[in-house]
Amino acid sequence: MNTRSLILPELLPLLEEFPTINLSPETLPASREELEQAAGQAFLQAEDYPVTLERLSIPGTDNASPISLLSVRPRKEATTPRPALLHIHGGGYLSGQPELTTPQLCQFAQDLDCVVFSPDYRLAPEHPFPAGIEDAYTTLCWITRNAETLGIDASRIGLTGESAGGGLAAGLALLTRDREGPTLLFQNLVYPMLDDRTITGQPDASPVGGEFVWTRVSNTFAWTCLLNPLAPGSADVSPYAAPARATDLSDLPPTYLSVGALDLFLDENLAYAQRLIHQGVSVELEIVPGACHIFDQTDTPVATRSIARRIDAMKRGFGL
């Protein structure tokens, strides 16, 4: 179904800037290079914000290489320890880096008066599950252990992420709960990638989702790389890899979830939000009409409004 007529007019330039490419072993290298260039350009925009950026290195899990972290801190002096926001970047589990959303991370640090940490976690297919989520958990524990040195309040840590980063954030919330790890105040998920079973076709799936930017073909390739040697849709997929697989969603932190009405992940996001609500988790859900994947990565009114709602939810999560 052709859905271009359903896209908000202000988002149409996004379709030209990020033409839809079905990811494969042949197209992945070029896609990674393009995102790396975009990350470099985004990083330069930090000079527009009153924040300090720093690249840190922390020990990896077991014999893994050290994990690189991007930290973003308000320049103004703090009179008390600041809250911390752990951000997980997107990229389909296959690409991307923390610098890709530098302007948003700077805005978060500024508007929330918090310190943002974003790990450069290991990517598939070179490092399939559980490499990425273990890097995220290692980062969370390191932040907590070093809270005093970092000038943060270990009892005030929030979690956020977009796309695959949103899926990793949701998986991290489950893993942290089950390992009785650090307490999280909230999970702020933006069009999270939650369910490997989406690739096999869903009953009553939205006919308008996934034509642009992130397609069903790319989704199939990404899940295949992440879950290797398991096949997407098989019975033994871990809920820490695909959070929609979790049967117990109780005792998770309050959740904010935002997704575009034309996003491939709409159905799995709605189902996850409903199950969270049914298991006693506080949920705020935003469905953005006329929006496709990564709509918030644009300089448009709809993106500005959505990011403002996202920040407002995190303010409430931090008790600001």
From TrEMBL:
One of its GO terms (molecular function) is hydrolase activity. InterPro entries: AB_hydrolase_3, AB_hydrolase_fold, GDXG_lipolytic_enzyme. Keywords: Hydrolase. Gene3D superfamilies: alpha/beta hydrolase (3.40.50.1820). It comes from the Bacteria. SUPFAM superfamilies: alpha/beta-Hydrolases. Residues 85-295 form the Alpha/beta hydrolase fold-3 domain. This is Alpha/beta hydrolase. The lineage of its organism: Bacteria, Pseudomonadati, Pseudomonadota, Alphaproteobacteria, Acetobacterales.
